[in-house]
C-alpha cells in the first residue's frame, strides 16, 4: 500500500468557544476514494474548509506526503495540488466553457501590451479535457456553462481540476442536487479520476453513492469521526444507522413502537389544525 | 435544465467546429443583440416621425454629444455591473470634477493643467474610498456609493460656497487644453468628447473582450468566491473598476466645465439613471456576469437618440421619458430572451 498523500492528524477546530471538530484523523492515498459521510451539521463543511485552506485548524496538523503543511489561503492549497469542487460545480453559468475552464490562467497569444486571450486554443483544450472524461456531448467550447446539465457541470469542474494538476480532489456533495442518471454520470467521473491516480475525498450523505465508488469510509457525527472502515466491512443499513446517530435512531424506533402499542397500532398523527 | 439532445448516436468527433449554426442565430445569442435591435428600432422610429434631419450632420452631432458624455461614464459603470457592483456616486463626481477645475483654474486663476490633474486625482481618491469600503465592509455597493454620492454632493456645495460665495463659477480656458478637452471639432457642432468616447470605447473593447483581464471581470460577476479561489485578485480589480468609474465621471465634469466656460454645483444626477439605463439596454445583466462593451455602446447611442430625437418630431418633448421607460422594459425583456437562447444553445439542436 502506498503512502497517504494527504492526512489529518488530531485536527481540532473551534470558532471562539464553539468546538466544531474534535481530534479528526483521516488520510487518503493516490488512486483511492475516501467517502466522508455525515448528516447536516456534522462538520463536513468545516472539514472541507480546513483541507482547502479556507480555515486553519485550531490544533493538530495537516500533512502532505508525510510532511506538515499549512494552507493559509485557498490559493495555497490549490497550489499544492488540492482542488475542491463544490455542489454546483463552482463554475460561472454565463461564461463559455473555454473561458470558465481557464479563469485566472487564460492562454494568450501575441506580444507585449497586445497579448490577447486565445479563444480557439482555450476551447480546444477545455473540450478535449472534458471529453477525455467521457462527456462526449460537449463539443463546442463557446457554449455557456449554464446550458450544461448539472452532471456535465460537475464533470467540467472535475476535468478542470485534473487538467491543472490536482492530486487530491475534494468533491463537496457532487450528487446532492442531481437526478439518478446525472448522479451515475458523476460517479463514473469519480471512478475515472481514481483510475488516473488521484486521491479523491467524496463528501456525501447519500450512502448509495458512497458505496458505489468508495474504498474507505469515515462517518462524521457532531464533529468527531464516529466510524472508520473499509469497503465491504459494513452494510448499507449499518452505515445509514451510523449516520443518523445510531443509538438515537434506535430510541426513536422504540418510541414509535411503544406509541403504536398503546394506540391500537396507529402511528403518531400530525397535529390537526 | 436538461438539454434534450439527440446526440447519443452521433459518434462525431468535434474536429470541425465550423458548423456553428446559422450566423443570424449566433448573432442573437450575443449580449449586444438586444441593444442592436433596440438601436435599429429607435432609428427607424425617429426617421419615420422626425424625418431625416436628425441623421444629417447637425442632427447627428446633437445625439452623439449626449452619447459621448454619457458613454464615457456608462462603460465603467457597466463594467462594475458585470463584475457584480454598482456605482451611483458618478452623479456627484461630474459636478465635483467640473467644480474642482473651475475653482482652481477659474476662481484662483491657476494653471488649467493643475486644475485637470487635481480634478482627476479627486476622482481616483473617491474611487479608492468606494472600492475599499465595498471590499472591507461587504456592504452592498449600492449603499456605499449612495453614501459617497451624498457626501461628495455635500463637499461640492459646501466648499464651493465657502470658497467662492456662489454656486456657479466661471472658467475661461484657451490653448491646447481647451482644444483637447473642451472644444468643438469638425465644423463646430461635434464636441471633442466624441473622439475621447470613441478612443475609450476601443480601448475598453480590447481590455474587456481580448485581454485576459476581461475574463476576470466576468468571472467576478459570475461567482466572486470561485473567482478568488481561481487566483484572480478580486479585491484589486474591484478597486480598479471603482477608480475607473469615478475618474471617468470627474473627467466628463471637467470637460463640460471647460466647454461651457462655467461650472455649477448641481447637475450630474441625471448621469446616475441614464448610465444605468444605457448599460441595461446594452444587454448587461443587472446581477453581473454577462454583457459586452459593444452592447453598452449601442445602448448609450439608443438612449441618446431617444433623448434628442424627440426634438425632431412633432411630439411634445415631455413624452421622451415615456419612450425611454418603455424602451428600457422592452430591452430588458428582449435581453432576457436572448440570454435564455444563449444558455440553452447546443450545437446539435438545429
From TrEMBL, chain A:
One of its GO terms (molecular function) is ATP hydrolysis activity. Residues 6-247 form the ABC transporter domain. InterPro entries: AAA+_ATPase, ABC_carbohydrate_import_ATPase, ABC_transporter-like_ATP-bd, P-loop_NTPase. CDD domains: ABC_Carb_Monos_I (cd03216). Pfam families: ABC_tran. Keywords: ATP-binding, Nucleotide-binding. This is Sugar ABC transporter ATP-binding protein. It comes from Paragemmobacter straminiformis. The lineage of its organism: Bacteria, Pseudomonadati, Pseudomonadota, Alphaproteobacteria, Rhodobacterales.
UniProtKB/TrEMBL annotation, chain B:
It is found in: Cell membrane. It comes from the Bacteria. The keyword Cell inner membrane applies. GO terms for cellular component: plasma membrane. GO terms for molecular function: transmembrane transporter activity. It is a multi-pass membrane protein. It holds the Pfam family BPD_transp_2. The chain crosses the membrane at residues 34-55, 62-82, 112-135, 141-163, 184-207, 239-259, 271-299, 319-338. Its main location: membrane. Keywords: Cell inner membrane, Cell membrane, Membrane, Sugar transport, Transmembrane, Transmembrane helix, Transport. Part of the binding-protein-dependent transport system for D-xylose. Probably responsible for the translocation of the substrate across the membrane. This is Xylose transport system permease protein XylH. It comes from Paragemmobacter straminiformis.
Amino acid at each position: 500500500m502506498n503512502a497517504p498523500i494527504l492526512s489529518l492528524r488530531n485536527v481540532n477546530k473551534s470558532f471562539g468557544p464553539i468546538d466544531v471538530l474534535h481530534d479528526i484523523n483521516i488520510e487518503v492515498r493516490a488512486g483511492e476514494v475516501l467517502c466522508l459521510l455525515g448528516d447536516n451539521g456534522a462538520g463536513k463543511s468545516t472539514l472541507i474548509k480546513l483541507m482547502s485552506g479556507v480555515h486553519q485548524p485550531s490544533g493538530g496538523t495537516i500533512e502532505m506526503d508525510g510532511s506538515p503543511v499549512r494552507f493559509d489561503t485557498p490559493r495555497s492549497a490549490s497550489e499544492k495540488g488540492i482542488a475542491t469542487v463544490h455542489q454546483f460545480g463552482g463554475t460561472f453559468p454565463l461564461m463559455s466553457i473555454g473561458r470558465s475552464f481557464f479563469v485566472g490562467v487564460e492562454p494568450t497569444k501575441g506580444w507585449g501590451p497586445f497579448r490577447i486571450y486565445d479563444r480557439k486554443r482555450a476551447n480546444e483544450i477545455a473540450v478535449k479535457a472534458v471529453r477525455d472524461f467521457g462527456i462526449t456531448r460537449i463539443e463546442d467550447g463557446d457554449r455557456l456553462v449554464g446550458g450544461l446539465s448539472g452532471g456535465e457541470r460537475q464533470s467540467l469542474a472535475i476535468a478542470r481540476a485534473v487538467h491543472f494538476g490536482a492530486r487530491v480532489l475534494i468533491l463537496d456533495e457532487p450528487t446532492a442536487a442531481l437526478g439518478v442518471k446525472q448522479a451515475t454520470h458523476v460517479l463514473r467521473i469519480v471512478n475515472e479520476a481514481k483510475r488516473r491516480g488521484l486521491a479523491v475525498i467524496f463528501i456525501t450523505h447519500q450512502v448509495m453513492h458512497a458505496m458505489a465508488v468508495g474504498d474507505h469510509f469515515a462517518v462524521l457525527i457532531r464533529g468527531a469521526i464516529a466510524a472508520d472502515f473499509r469497503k465491504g466491512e459494513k452494510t448499507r443499513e449499518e452505515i445509514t444507522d451510523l449516520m443518523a446517530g445510531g443509538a438515537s435512531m434506535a430510541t426513536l424506533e422504540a418510541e414509535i413502537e411503544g406509541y403504536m402499542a398503546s394506540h391500537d397500532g396507529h402511528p403518531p398523527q400530525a397535529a390537526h389544525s | 435544465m436538461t438539454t434534450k439532445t439527440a446526440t447519443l448516436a452521433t459518434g462525431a468527433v468535434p474536429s470541425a467546429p465550423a458548423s456553428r449554426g446559422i450566423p443570424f442565430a449566433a448573432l442573437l445569442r450575443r449580449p449586444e443583440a438586444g441593444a442592436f435591435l433596440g438601436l435599429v428600432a429607435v432609428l427607424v422610429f425617429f426617421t419615420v416621425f422626425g424625418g431625416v434631419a436628425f441623421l444629417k450632420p447637425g442632427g447627428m452631432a446633437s445625439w452623439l454629444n449626449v452619447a459621448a458624455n454619457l458613454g464615457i461614464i456608462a462603460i465603467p459603470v457597466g463594467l462594475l455591473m458585470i463584475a457584480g457592483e454598482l456605482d451611483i456616486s458618478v452623479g456627484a463626481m461630474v459636478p465635483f470634477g467640473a467644480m474642482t477645475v473651475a475653482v482652481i483654474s477659474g476662481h484662483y486663476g491657476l494653471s488649467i493643467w493643475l486644475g485637470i490633474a487635481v480634478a482627476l486625482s479627486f476622482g481616483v481618491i473617491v474611487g479608492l474610498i468606494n472600492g475599499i469600503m465595498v471590499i472591507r465592509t461587504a456592504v452592498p455597493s449600492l449603499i456605499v456609493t449612495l453614501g459617497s454620492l451624498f457626501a461628495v454632493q455635500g463637499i461640492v456645495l459646501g466648499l464651493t460656497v465657502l470658497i467662492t460665495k456662489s454656486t456657479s463659477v466661471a472658467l475661461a480656458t484657451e490653448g491646447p487644453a481647451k482644444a483637447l478637452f473642451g472644444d468643438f471639432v469638425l465644423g463646430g457642432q461635434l464636441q471633442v468628447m466624441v473622439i475621447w468616447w470613441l478612443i475609450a470605447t476601443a480601448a475598453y473593447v480590447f481590455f474587456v473582450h481580448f485581454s485576459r483581464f476581461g475574463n476576470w471581470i466576468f468571472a467576478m460577476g459570475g461567482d466572486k468566491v470561485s473567482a478568488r479561489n481561481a487566483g484572480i485578485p478580486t479585491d484589486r480589480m474591484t478597486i480598479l473598476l471603482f477608480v475607473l468609474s469615478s475618474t471617468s465621471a470627474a473627467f466628463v465634469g471637467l470637460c463640460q466645465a471647460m466647454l461651457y466656460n462655467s461650472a455649477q454645483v448641481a447637475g450630474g444626477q441625471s448621469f446616475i439613471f441614464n448610465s444605468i439605463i444605457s448599460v441595461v439596454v446594452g444587454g448587461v445583466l443587472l446581477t453581473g456576469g454577462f454583457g459586452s462593451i459593444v452592447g453598452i455602446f449601442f445602448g448609450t447611442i439608443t438612449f441618446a437618440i431617444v433623448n434628442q430625437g424627440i426634438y425632431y418630431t412633432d411630439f411634445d418633448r415631455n413624452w421622451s421619458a415615456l419612450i425611454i421607460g418603455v424602451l428600457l422594459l422592452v430591452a430588458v425583456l428582449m435581453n432576457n430572451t436572448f440570454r435564455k437562447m444563449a444558455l440553452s444553445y447546443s450545437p446539435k439542436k438545429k
